[in-house]
Every structure is written in C-alpha cells, then in structure tokens.
Predict the structure of N-acetyl-gamma-glutamyl-phosphate reductase.
Amino acid sequence: MTRVAVLGAAGYTGGELLRMLLAHPGVEVVQATSDQFAGKRLDYPHPNLRGMSSLRFVPHDALEPCDLLVSCMPQGGLINRWARVRELAGRVIDLSADFRLAPAAHERWYKKHPRPAGVPGFVYALPEWTASELPEARYVAVPGCMAHASLLGILPLVRAGLVKPELVVDAKTGSSGGGATPDRASHHPERASALRCYKPVGHRHTGEIENVVERLTGTRPSVHFSATAIPSVRGILATVHGFTTRPLDEAEPLRAIAMAYREKPFVRLIRPNTSASPFPEPGPLQGTNYCDLSVDVDPERNRIVVNVALDNLMKGAAGTAVHAMNLMLGRSETEGLGFRGLHPI
Amino acid sequence: MTRVAVLGAAGYTGGELLRMLLAHPGVEVVQATSDQFAGKRLDYPHPNLRGMSSLRFVPHDALEPCDLLVSCMPQGGLINRWARVRELAGRVIDLSADFRLAPAAHERWYKKHPRPAGVPGFVYALPEWTASELPEARYVAVPGCMAHASLLGILPLVRAGLVKPELVVDAKTGSSGGGATPDRASHHPERASALRCYKPVGHRHTGEIENVVERLTGTRPSVHFSATAIPSVRGILATVHGFTTRPLDEAEPLRAIAMAYREKPFVRLIRPNTSASPFPEPGPLQGTNYCDLSVDVDPERNRIVVNVALDNLMKGAAGTAVHAMNLMLGRSETEGLGFRGLHPI
Amino acid sequence: MTRVAVLGAAGYTGGELLRMLLAHPGVEVVQATSDQFAGKRLDYPHPNLRGMSSLRFVPHDALEPCDLLVSCMPQGGLINRWARVRELAGRVIDLSADFRLAPAAHERWYKKHPRPAGVPGFVYALPEWTASELPEARYVAVPGCMAHASLLGILPLVRAGLVKPELVVDAKTGSSGGGATPDRASHHPERASALRCYKPVGHRHTGEIENVVERLTGTRPSVHFSATAIPSVRGILATVHGFTTRPLDEAEPLRAIAMAYREKPFVRLIRPNTSASPFPEPGPLQGTNYCDLSVDVDPERNRIVVNVALDNLMKGAAGTAVHAMNLMLGRSETEGLGFRGLHPI
Amino acid sequence: MTRVAVLGAAGYTGGELLRMLLAHPGVEVVQATSDQFAGKRLDYPHPNLRGMSSLRFVPHDALEPCDLLVSCMPQGGLINRWARVRELAGRVIDLSADFRLAPAAHERWYKKHPRPAGVPGFVYALPEWTASELPEARYVAVPGCMAHASLLGILPLVRAGLVKPELVVDAKTGSSGGGATPDRASHHPERASALRCYKPVGHRHTGEIENVVERLTGTRPSVHFSATAIPSVRGILATVHGFTTRPLDEAEPLRAIAMAYREKPFVRLIRPNTSASPFPEPGPLQGTNYCDLSVDVDPERNRIVVNVALDNLMKGAAGTAVHAMNLMLGRSETEGLGFRGLHPI
C-alpha cells in the first residue's frame, strides 16, 4: 500500500481526490490537511463522503512523512512549502500552476513565483501524451483544466499537420473551477444565470497550451483563448476553431484523432450517427475521468471545429492526478477511476 | 453469473440499471429491450455508457429466457406481458406500480389494471424493512420513489410510537421522475424555473405509504401527501411534518431512527454538528443508493419534522432494484452500488 | 413630486426599489445610500439599471432630509439609526423585521432589539388586508417575504371559518432572500443544486404569521412552518396544508378567496381549467408585484391545500413597499408596478 | 389606434409580443391566432398575461383585416399564407426567416421556399442600422436572433476598418430559441445541464450575417459561426473573435462602437471600471429590448474580442418587432419597450 497524503484536502479538488483515494485498492490515505477544518472528519465539508472514513483533517503544518503527496493548494501554496514538502514526500503531484511552466514562461504568465533555484523540473501530466515520462517521475504537475481540454483537441490535429497553427479556443466553464471560497462573482444570485465571457483575452492557460503543443509536436501555434462562465457547477466545453491546411472532409481528422487516442481508456471520440446525444457535453462526464470529443469540418471554408468536454474537477484536475499516480506507481491506468457518469443529470 | 435481462432499458431507470449491471461482478446482462432503439447500441440513448458495452437493444418481443428479468416498463407494461414474462424468467423485479399494492388498493388508486386472477403476489422491496422476505422472493416490486422516501422517514417513528398517525408529507422532486418522453410540462423552457405543487391532493403514493406503514407497524396512519416540482433533474426531498405523542426533544427520535437503520449501509442519519452541509439534500446523493435523513423537534409545539433525501432514479428506483437483486441472489448488499456521489454538483 | 431616499440601496431589494422608483411618475429619488459603493453610479452594482440614472450612491451617514425614506437595511439597521432618521424623514417604510412585531413578540422571536422606548408603532403593510390604515400612516413595516405569502393564503380561509386553526406551512424559496453578501451556503457550487429544508422548526416568520392572523381575524392559529431552499434565485411557493372545519368541496374556499381578493389588482386566484400552467409558480411572477394562488380540496379527508406564489424581492419586499407608498401618497395602487412578468423564464 | 393582429401568437415570441402590445398606448390587439388554443383566452398558454386581457385566440384561418400584422409563424408559415395575408394587412412584420434573405441566398441556406414570384422585398429590421428604411416600409423582416447579436458587434468594427474580415463567432444560447414544441433535445432532463455545440459548422445565420455586413458596409466578411446550447432558457451571448487590421489598443474600437450606437436607446457599451458586473450577459437583459456589448483587445496579438448579449425572444425577436413597428408608425422608438430587466435573476 502506498501511503498518500493530501495537502489542502477540504476544497473541491481535494474532495474528489479523497473520494477516489479512499476507495483505491493500492493506496492508503494517511493524512488530509486543512487549516479551516482541522479536527473535523473528512465528511464535514464533503457530504458525499459521509460514513466513508473516520479520518480527520490535520493542519497543513502537521504534515508527516509519506510515500506520495498530492497538493491541492491554490497558486503558490506548494512552492511556499517546498523546502518542507521535499523532506516529507518522495513523490509529489501538484494540482496548481506552480510547476506547470518553465521558469521564463511562468514569469511571463503568472508574474510571481518564478521557480526558485533548487526547485526541480516537474513532469507535465497529460497522460495520453506524456505517459512514458510518468513511471519515473518524482514530481508531477497536473495541467490546468482548460488547457487540458484544449490540448486534447489541438494536439492530434497539429501533429498530423491538418490544421493551421492559428487557433481560436472558446472555452465554457462551470463555477467549481473558481474553488470553494465565496466571493461576489460566485454568489448564487449573481452566478446562477451567468453567461459571461469573463476573460476574453490574456488568459493564463494560453501560454500553457502554446508551450505544450510546441514541445510535443515541434510546431508553435498561436492560440487565441477566451473563457466564458456558464450556468453550471462542473464541466468544461472547449470549442477549438481552426482552419485546415488543405481541402479535406471529416474523415481525415477523425482518423488522426482516433489514432491519437487508440487504446487510451479515457478519451472517447464521438463518431457520426452513434448517439442520440451526438455532441460532447460535460453533463454525463461529471465525476468521471472521461473526455469526449468530436470534430466537424466545413469543406467549403476549410474550416474545422473540435469540441472537447470534460469535468474540470476530474479529468481537469483530481482524476488526472489519480491517473498520473497510477502510472507513477506502475498500477493499472484505470484503477479508482471506474465511475461511468450519470444520465440524465 | 446470473443472466439478467432488462425490459424497457432505454428510459432513465433502464439507463441507471444498465450502468450498474454492466459493472456488477455477479451478473451478465444478456438482453436489453427497447422498441424505439432496437438495433442501436446501449450507449446510443445513454451517453454515459459510451464504450462500456457492445450490446444492442432488441425489441420487447425479442425477449428470451433468462435467470432474472428487471422491468422498467411504464404502468401496465409488465402486467400486459405477464403471461409471456413468467415463461421466460424465473425471477422478476418490477419498477412500475403494477404490483406494489394489493388488488383492492390498486383498484382504488390506479383504477385500471387490478391484478388479474393468476397473478401472484410480489414482495415489496424496501430493503431496510423487508430484507428478510427477499432471498426467497421470485417476484419483487420496487416502491414508488416518493413513497420510498416518505416510508424511510415515517416508519421508525410510527413503530416507536413517537408520532401521531396524522402526517403531512410535502415531497419535492426533480423532472427525471416523469420519464424520458417529452411533453409540454417537461419542455425545458416550461420546466427550468418550475416550482409548482403539481399534485396537492390525491397523489397515488398516498395509498402505498399508508398501506405499507400499516402492514409493517400495525398502525394505519393518515398521510396527507403533496408533490411539488422543483427546478432540478434528479432527487427527492420528502419533508414529513408530524406531531409527537408526548413532549420530547430530539434525542428520542434520533435514537429511534438510528436504531432502525443501524447496520443498514444505505441509510444515513445526519446528526447535529457533524457537517458543514447539515441538511439532507439529494444533490450529493445523485447516482448513489444512499438516503440521508434528519430529524428536528420543536418541543414547545410537540412538533417533529423529518427530512429524507434520495435520488429518485437510484434509491427511488434502479438502485433499490439492484439492492433487492443482491439480496435475492444471496450476494453482498452493496455490490454494484459503490458510487459515493459528488460534491459539489 | 415626493422626494424619496433609499437607505441601503445597493442590495437586492434596494435594486428593485430603484428600478421602480426611478420610473415612477410621482416620486423623485433624491438619495440612495451604500457605504460599499459610495461614489459609484446606481448601475454599478445593479447592471439592469445601466443608463437609467446618473445618480451616485452616498454613504449612509450622508442622508439628508426627504419626504419619504425607504429602508432596505438588514435587521437592526434602521432601529440603530432611528433617532437620526426620524429627524430627516416625515414618513418611513422599513423592509426589515425591526418594526413588524409588537415588542413582546419581537423579543420572543428575534431576541435582540426589542423596540426601545420612544419608538412608535408601525403599520403592517399587507395592502390587501390593511390598505385602510396606510393613507394616514407615517411609519410602515413591510411583511417578511415568507410570512406575506403564507398570510395571503391563510387569511381568507380562517376569516371564513373554513379551516381548522392548526396549519402546516411548507415554504420553498430561492437564494436571493439571503441577500447580496456572499457566504458558504450561497456559494454557487454549494447552492446550485440545493434542495434543503434549512429551517424545519423555529422559523421567525412563525410568530409574524400567527400574530397577524389573530389580529386580522380574531382567531389565533397554530402555524407549523418550515423553510426549504430550492435551486432558484427568486421566488417563493408557500404550500399551506390544512383541514376543513366541515366536509366541503372546492367551491366554497374558491369563493372565499375570490371574495377576499375581489378588486385587489395584485392577487390572482387560478381557477380550474383556465390555464395550461394551472399551478401557482413564482417563475412568471419574477419582477412583478403579483401573487398567484390556488386551492385544492380532498373531500374524503377534509383536507385543504392552498398554494401561494410570489417574488420574494417584489411582492415579498420592494413591490409591497411601492404599493404601500402609493397608498400612503394617495396615488393609484398600481403605479410603478405595471410589469407583467415573463414566460418562459 | 393602429389595429394589430398577431399570427401564431401562442408561441414564445407571440407571448412576448402580446405582453408588449396589450400595454402599448398606440395599438389595439384585434386578433391573436392559434390553432391549438383557439377559443382559449390569451393567458391560457401565457401565464404571465393572467388577467391582462379577455381576448381569445382564433384559428389562423379566422384572420380578418387589420392595419398591421405581425407573424410569429415558424419557417414557411407566412410564405404559405402570403396570398391571403397581403389581402388582409397593409403592413406586415415577419419574425421568421422567410423573407430575411434575397432569393438566391435564401435558396443557398434554407433550400426550400425560395421567395416565389410576386412576393415583394422586405426591409431588414436592424433598427440601429436600417432605421431610415422603416418608416416607409410595408413589409419588414426581423433578423434571426443570433445573426442580430453578431451583427451588432461586427458592423461598427468592419465599417471603421478596424478588423480583418475573417471572423469567428461563437454564439451561446438558451433553450427558448427552439420554440414551444417539446422534443427530446429540449426535454428538461436532457437539456437542463446541456453545454453542447449543436451546430459547429453550417449554421444558417452565417449567410444572413455575411450578406447584411456586405450590404451595410461594402465589405464582405467570412464569418465562421458556431452555436452552443447552454443551460438557460433565455439569452444569447455572441463572442466575436477577430484580428485588428493594425496594432491598436481598446480606445479606438471603443470609440467606433460608441459612435455607432450614440443616441441609440437600446444598445449599451460597457466601458471599463463602470460596473461590478463588467461583462455583457443576457441575465439582466431578460424581457428587455437592450443589447449590452464590450470590446477587449490583446495588442500583443492584434487580437480583438467583442461580446454581445441580448434576449433572443426580445431584442432578438419580439422586441425588435415592436421597435420596428414604432418606427413604421412614426411613434417614439421606445414605446412599449420600457422594461429595464431584473437583477439578480
């Protein structure tokens, strides 16, 4: 049994991690930290875990040695504790943006916390694309949720040379990505009917997407990214608008995507005429590690549109952390990730 | 492996059954019927099952022999096929109201389809209360979803003699209970903001609740039941308003409920000060077989209020079918029912 | 032109008041106070008022003399400023609970702020029932939103002697009643799917309902009130469960209610077979001062159920303030209250 | 008083028209047609109109002569009745796509119903841009809702030469645009959590946008349009993604848009730092004829994003019909369109 601790376990990604890890056959949750809920049982802030464990939260500073630490701390939370964390845990998975980008790119997009000297590189956990790097990895960074969705749609097409490297990504997202801390924008009366493009330009995931595409395909794209809040709690739909490099119909990009995700258990390409619900949508993916995608082509305009749906808290965060953990530990990829999702929802 | 067929498997309770049965270690789904989707794969109407099975729907009339049949047909669907079904399946679980009530009561509340001569009695599957009858049962009827929620709250208090047998039940429910067939009342623009008491008096579950309470406790209550549609898809909250038989505080009813559901894995009593979300609510129960309940007493007024939350498609339908099936087959109660629910949702 | 000031105008009832008063032909809004938004234009926190006025918020303490002051301050806000407010305004309408109850009842239900010596009585503004007291009133208290809905359903039946004075009221409410200040319970991810009976017993509106019914009908009822949060922003549905004093069908209570609200422009009784949406529901009442109600009888059980729907921010708060103001000023009852509501919504 | 008839008045745009016209000081509603609800009062399918009128629906074929006819019939409904309608009404406003496009373009995008010989040209009612054509117009076509939103964002920038004529438009829309007829995709359990790009390529409004931009600016753009269903009933947010023709910051496009809509009462440009809700969103626009827009520029990438919000049933349909009618009748532009919208909602 791998002894796992969760740092910052009272938030939304922390809750999803606990749900999966407490039922995972290969790990034991030894500690879960929360300053706010220290002393309370895990199900105190996570009502779905009612009766699942008698473990109680400990303060962040009460962290003890473990085999693997998963950090759900917000931006800067892990980097600020890095000296101590590296003493306590041989392997670390971080869900924040602290270690996703190379130092220069980090400074460009996040400005603060350029990775200090002595802090090692983290492997970027995009399991369908970087799985081979994970078994040996000591330190792993989970992608940003909207970057993750965008990358799963963009990478196969850029790699196959089917799409011009000038892409517009219009991402729609629920409220849970903003975390568990109340504020005006997420106050229910203000958020319940929200349909607002809250970050039309300058979104930080832009740099993450461009850098990763370049690293994995050799082509540096220009990604024009906008994020829109929609009236839901969970889920992302990333719509990638592009143009084909030459006249083609849907067959070729369908093939490229199908090839890229052949034998990848969590990415599903929706083919024409196979579903009464033929569009990727995050609803039935809630709570799962699945990503659904579709591709549409308008041959008259050399236009291509890829839609990618996932659950921001799962495939976009905690699910990928467990997926990466499984690969790091040499276990089956799908362990602890068996939930199939609900319909209707 | 028990060979199970699902009759009427393209609807919402059918989808939930397939989700659970396809992953259940003790059963094999041999047939799933749907006239509308005959020839299509199971995931055609159930997008969450994408990639889970290559089985295809067959028409209802193509049903072949199996060990156990679960019927998700609407009112009258099973009774009309009874002669044939009894030939094909040794054991049957029905999710409709066809066999829940004794013939006289059925005729009183449903008017049509009084159980014809030659049709046997069905065991009423309220596992926390009738589990002992299930291992031997050949024919099993799953309770109505709102009756189920109401009964789980009422039974412990009536049995313990703590509550007067005159009860008001105000049940709130999402839209999925109405099934998958579109109509005006469930058209999204009409239903999205619905908060309407659509059945203030005369609801059919009234008779079911009164009869079952009488049979299981010996006391016949008067239940004054109203049903209100609320803006959600899944979930029921049944608020039971009653009066105590004598002055008491919360301790006694808490104890009575705790005793009733001791070692019952799917019913959870929320005790004071144990949760940041201390009220039973169906949100985090979606997709699970859990039922959460709470009790509140106003000693000044001898008033008692019990709130009961569950997922109408699961604990209120398909989950109880699987729960009953496990007991009928002598398997572990919780098999196939391990999903813990999501938070936030 | 009556010069009106709004105290605490940046919250949700303040926003509704401004929307109506800025377009009202008989009044001029001279000041609107907010400490948080002092110096900002009225449309800064109220996006629907964009371009409607160039007025800016002033701090609460910058209040100047006016003809009529409407206070949208929370509990205790007006009572704490009373000495100063009485100097500044000849007439006052308060939307909080500060002045709704007689001192003894206030102390019983609110504990703090028993009305201090020297503070005058306020007229309780239930326009369909207390309109005759309003023209002369200097000081007016607007009912609590859930009390208001309950009273409109209960009063005609108690007055007509048709219902036993032991009533269960199960009220369902959206999130806006909790105000504009963010907290965990109203954080969108926690509130979006909420269906929780957050106040099963002991709700403060109980006392308000019982006292007002007694005062207006001479009969003191026992009201057993519970409040349930449902997944919407605006709107209340109060379901009143009662028992008739003698066997009767729907005709008699329909007549009693129709009589009570004859020529009352804002209360509408839904009669059988007159609507494709025959149940009172707050959706199409959003933004209006209307209250819709229905009555159902189960003669077998001497049971009667009255459903009452309204918009908590309008008929339940700001709309009644304007209605009362019109009566105080001798203007047409419906002035400024012409909006008919939306369907679908 | 202008005598107005509404053809197809039982649907959602018909309901909005009736709400406005019944309260309009310059018109009298003489007939409202519906085959389904013939003989019922207007408030039968429109609960918000309860008590507003005693008029009853008549069948479509019972239409009598009037001064002005507004048709809310679906695609083909008016064209099929054209011979008769032209006899009955001197002026006609059509809300369908029957007469929006020139015959060749209509045939390209709609395939059926190319305008038959003898059918006159209709004036395209985009009041902020074609107001001068309306006073003389006999026949008027209201734009498609998503085309309308897109055009209000695109036109000022193309006319000012600030944006390259290759544009991606990602439009998000609620369910009411699909009309009042139930179907599976709009069945509440299927639609409540929908976030699906249901028309990634080939949307018919593409041709409408391109043609109108060319006619009004002389520049023919390529518009790459996708439509996404989001979990709401009313409202459109059109996000226009473009590239500037030269390096510039926000000041210039802000000026161009401000100039275009100077003294246009229904289009509001949200300037930086003027609102706690600084993004255009359709929520507070529900029921109004307003359109809110914003512009953002990323000077590093010569990128420009315009967001445009409106209510599809109002500014996108019935509101523009009334706006156009006011101009046709020489009345004040804003008559009957005074509702300011709600917040929160």
